[in-house]
């Protein structure tokens, strides 16, 4: 086979591929409309719908694929590079900024420059050749916004040293694991002095992280 290239910005020159792509998108759109809702309980549920549509589409090519299989060679020993590579420096707030997304990372990485392998659904960070993080990739709803992936367990130990920083943290509300913790904060912030409320909330989050009892603490005091 002889490889060819398209002219930049002229997607219609790749018609054979784009037609099939458009057909698949149309099938997915119709399947979702027949389903009656665009809300999915999980990524796995959405993936099952995609697999079903692709399975039906691939039935038409089963015979031709069987013919091609006779000539297929073994797969390469190493997988191809299906990610883009970038770098990000960990700020003093224990965050990195990657493709309009703000992510928290363990506070021990503050000051490090991470080499990031960026996939469509995750990012993997390395210091030198050692993998140190793997995070789910997030996307902003609007082009001018920045998505956030906040994990309180990454920053809670540094906050324990300076609990007053909790109140003024830019992503404070996203540090709470769920609505139960948000309600606890609202209650304790009204009943205790400001400094004591911060200490109390940070202590609770630290206990949840250290002892893996997030659910139990979140429901503490609830009926």
Description:
This protein is of the alpha+beta class and about 220 residues long. The chain has 3 domains: about 15-70; about 85-150, no CATH class; about 155-220, no CATH class. It is built from 8 helices and 7 strands, in the order αααβββββββααααα. It has helices at about 15-35, 45-60, 60-70, 150-160, 165-170, 180-190, 195-210, 215-220, and strands at about 85-90, 95-100, 100-105, 115-120, 120-125, 130-135, 145-150. It has a 4-stranded antiparallel sheet with strand order 1-4-5-6, with no helix packed on it. Strands 2-3-7 form a 3-stranded mixed sheet. The chain starts with 14 loop residues before the first helix and ends in a 5-residue tail after the last helix.
Features:
3 domains, 223 residues, 8 helices, alpha+beta, three-stranded mixed β-sheet
Treating each run of at least 4 consecutive H or I residues as one helix, how many helices?
8
* Topology, number of strands: 7
Order of strands across the biggest sheet? 1-4-5-6
Percentage of residues assigned to helices: 40-55%
H/E element order: HHHEEEEEEEHHHHH
Mean pLDDT: 88
- Overall geometry: elongated
Provide the gyration radius in Å: 24 Å
Strand count, sense and closure of the main sheet? 4 strands, antiparallel
* Gap from first CA to last CA: 69 Å
Strand proportion, as a percent range, falls in: 15-25%
User: Quaternary arrangement of the chains shown?
Assistant: single chain
> Which stretches are low in confidence, meaning pLDDT under 50 for 5 or more residues running?
none
The number of domains: 3
Structural class computed from helices and strand pairing: alpha+beta
